[in-house]
Amino acid sequence: MDETTAMSGHNLIDHFGIIEQIEDDVALVKINSESACAACHAKGVCGAADQEEKYLDIPLHGVDYNKGEPVHVQVARHLGFRAVALGYIYPFLLLMAVLISLTAFGANELRAGIFALLSLLPYYLILFLLRKRIKTTFTFSMKKIQTVQ
Q: Taking CA 140 as the corner, what is the angle to CA 134 and CA 141, rounded to the nearest 5 degrees?
């Protein structure tokens, strides 16, 4: 099974993870975030493959888990799209809008480019200031991996 798959019928994004630590009612789960080419058989000669470990705090909701236990970490697919929009699409649209507007009003390209890049600073500052509110909208859940005995 692929590590990043959509659960059919549930509209979820699913990652394989391992519980690194449990404190109070929260588990620290390590997942490996892979690009699409990371699973390719030619990744050793390509050099484009990247894999990064990420850590998530996931509430246990009273379910008994153990340190080192493999789990499925799940998030709703629409939340994945929202994260991509907040991190990539909206900043790109802001950058392009400022760049096109300034060049249309006669600013030279260098100045328009610099101001377009600087326009991203308030955007990311606002995201940073709202990080706790944003964090509450991105809820992850865990499922135990069913083992065949």
A: 155
How many of the other CB atoms lie within 10 Å of CB of 13? 19
Helical packing angle, 109-118 and 120-129, nearest 10° = 0
Q: Has residue 14 been placed in a domain?
A: yes
Q: Give the predicted TM-score (pTM) of the model.
A: 0.64
Per-residue model confidence (pLDDT) at position 35: 56
Residue 105 covered by a domain? yes
Q: Is residue 149 part of a domain?
A: no
| Total domains, the chain | 1
* H/E run at residue 34: strand 26-34
- Quote the tokens at residue 115: 């101001």
Distance CA 59, CA 138 (A): 12
Q: How many CB atoms lie within 10 A of CB 140?
A: 18
| pLDDT at res. 5 | 44
Cβ atoms of 86 and 127 within 8 Å: the answer is yes
148 alpha-carbon distance from chain centroid: 31
pLDDT below 50 — which residues of the chain?
Answer: 1-9, 47-48
Identify the pLDDT of residue 10.
Answer: 63
